[in-house]
Task: structure prediction
Amino acid sequence: MNKKKMTRKWMLSGMALSLLVPTLAACSTDKGKDSDVRRTLRIGTMSGSKQDEIWFRQQFTDMFELTHDGIDIEIVPAIDYTENQFEDQSKQQEQPDPLEKVKAIMTGNNPVDVMIFDMSMLSPLVNENLLKQLDPLMKENSIDPNDFVPAVIDSIKEQGNNFVYALTPTFTPSALYYNKKLFQKVSAEMPKDGMSWDDVFNLARRMKSGTGKDAVYGFSFNQWGGSENFWDLQNFAAPLQLKMYDDKAETMTVNTPQWEAVWKTFSDLYKDHVTPRQEDMNAMYSEPKTDGRNNPFQGQLFLNGKVAMTIGGYDLINQIEQYNDNADKLKLERLDWDVVSVPFHAGHEGVGGSIYLNNLSGINSKAANPDDAWEFVKFMNGKEWSKLKARSTYEMPARKEFVKVREGLSYNVDAFTKVKPAPMLQSSLKEQKLLREKPNLYMVTELGNRFYMEVMQGKKSVKEGLAGWETKGNDLLQKIKTNPKGQIDGVFDDVYGGGGGGGIMYDKVEAAASAG
Result:
């Protein structure tokens, strides 16, 4: 969800905000301080700019300032990316270290009081004693950790050595969506919460039927359908914590039974048309329009009843609503759907990909204004604010009491709350540091993508693909060791398609790192 869309959603909530102001004001407190004496609360963010500050204030601080008369908010970004936008773009820019930048604004002569950050930062900040433990403050203010979604609070505790050092008002979950009519048609048992990936794939094979334009596919890793996406494979494997290379990025670690099992899973589903192939999707795109009308949902196989199950984010509900609201106009069949929790890998129960905790707020252990800092963290994660954020259509409130089915709909809303996020290796601080020191490491991912595509197209077996990735990857890692940032030619010349460096996968690695 981009910031423009989020800003529009905020504006649409304006009337609701005005109605909540009296309630929020009544619940606010300045801890007995003289409101005539103004204080400044410094809030740190991982990145930002003057333009972003307007959006950030609307999202996080405007209502707090409105209900806390004696406090002024100062926003302090750890990284201001606008500083480099007027530099010579023909030269490769040195990427800043997010952790070091965050530590810089949390220490020194004028440290921030509150820090807002993503999940990748929590453990390092705790281990460097830069965050104040919140458990005593929560107990003093009768804030029960059990009031929060277990998947959220448990993840926070795991990164905080079993203590709470930060809270978040919202999280972005995913679930397994399924088409009820397709299951009823073949008298198959409906999916349920707590299924393993093997359970889902076995069920998907049963649901596969038909050919050509009449085909129905059992499962897709995303709502659009295509299964040859290397990003989907990485996301699927995230709970397994499979690494492409060692901690020094000098030796490949992909030619293993674990990697082989993941690649074989995808290859078999693709080969057997359990998940749709690209040519299957092309056939759908070439179908004539319904009565000459444009079908804006034509490319989404799940919405069109062509896929029995798919992994989707919470915001997929928006598209389903829009589809069903317009189905009669388009003369399409309405989608009868529900959701269950994201499947798990054996030995990693309750952990899945595509679940994010991005707006954690914690108190700097060196805060000059710790009382107001706690007031802000308490307010941001309190009941009144959670009630307001519960209106969001792209993220869910972290407080259990506000996790509710949207008005007019009926679905298993608890499915979104049962799976903890699996940390993406590309998002880890250690991996981010390696990518900054050796930006050419993106080529290792692209190299894997090339070999993976050859496997999916039947040009290589899984074993051959992984062996090729290992061999070519080890050669590439040695070149990167001596040339971490400069041009490296000839890497892909004898692999799928030949040619250059594959910036698409680099963008996705960077996107994963920034998403946390």
Notes: Residues 1-23, 28-32, 497-516 have pLDDT under 50 and may be disordered. The two ends are 15 Å apart (CA to CA). Residues 446 and 502 are 6 Å apart (CA to CA).
